[in-house]
Amino acid sequence: MGRVEQRRRLLPARLVYFVLGLALFSPAPYLEVLRHLVEGLRGAGLWGNWHIPAKSSLFRARERLGSEPLRVLFAATARPMAEAAIPGAFWRGLRLVGVDGTCWDVADTATNEKEFGRPGNARGPHKAAFPQVRMVALVEVGTHAVLDAELAGCRTGEVTLVSRLPRSCGPDQLVLADREFLGVPLWRAFTASGAHLLWRVPANRVLPVQQRLADGSWLSRIQAHSDGKKRDPVPVRVISYRLNGVPGAERDGYRLVTDLLNADEYPARELAALYRERWEIESVLGEIKTHQRGPGVVLTSKTPEGVRQQIWAHLLVHHALRELMCRTAAARGLDPDRLSFTDTLRAARRSVTTTPGVFSP
User: Fold this and answer.
1) Positive or negative CA dihedral for 7, 12, 13, 18?
2) pTM of the model
């Protein structure tokens, strides 16, 4: 293989490493990130006659790379991490996962607005300051690892995007979700994967009692809005409870539905206590968008391809950080929740600067 051909083959891998570096050191500018990535080469005597390229060259390189290599890399590497011994990762043999969504502010350009849309402002007729990308994610609760994600413009609803996530679910999982996702088509899409479900119920949903069970839960059914004659119901078990004396708890209480119909094997009290684990997903989104990306930071790419590239890079870096935390916790016999995400992020940044390759997403 000639030297020129070899350099061309290595170029995409180097570009991916650079884009991941942009996510790791966000919101640092291009040249500063590149200096972090190569500084260790100088100390190791490997710098040679290499020079840091111009910023414009890095822009063009990112455009050539696009977002697809990052998306494919994420799909190939995102996987469950939790071992059975990790507290809060499993319940009665089922791996706990959750789904939720968020939005990313992106650069205010005509192409980004055309591709992703710009939400309205609830305080008046004006539009929001920035176009937005909607993202939904499937998250492993015990480790905070993102297992799958979907991206679209802000005009696309979360339910539409979440309907693509059952591809990453399976029989050993219990999927937790909030009330906006409860609907027969989505319910069936997830249960068809073999996964079990524990979802919250909207306040206005009527769930008639078909059979009252010993633990206070009851068997009921839900129907699709299109099933006007109620010929194809889905059997569910309903769990209703209140959180007395808890600040901020809803006065009318909470209702959950699950496909785990056996009250003896899956007690209602345990399921009610388990549902609070769904809020771990909010912590995951905070890790990515606040601590890693930076609070209030707008994604800088001026094109939709560049925006998608940035988001996939952030998801890859977060997954690598979470895997590092799981390995560290396992080596010390700790719960990963005992480790600080922010401290891990800072340590990874230091290690990349001083020893290139020691932390490689």
Assistant:
1) positive
2) 0.91
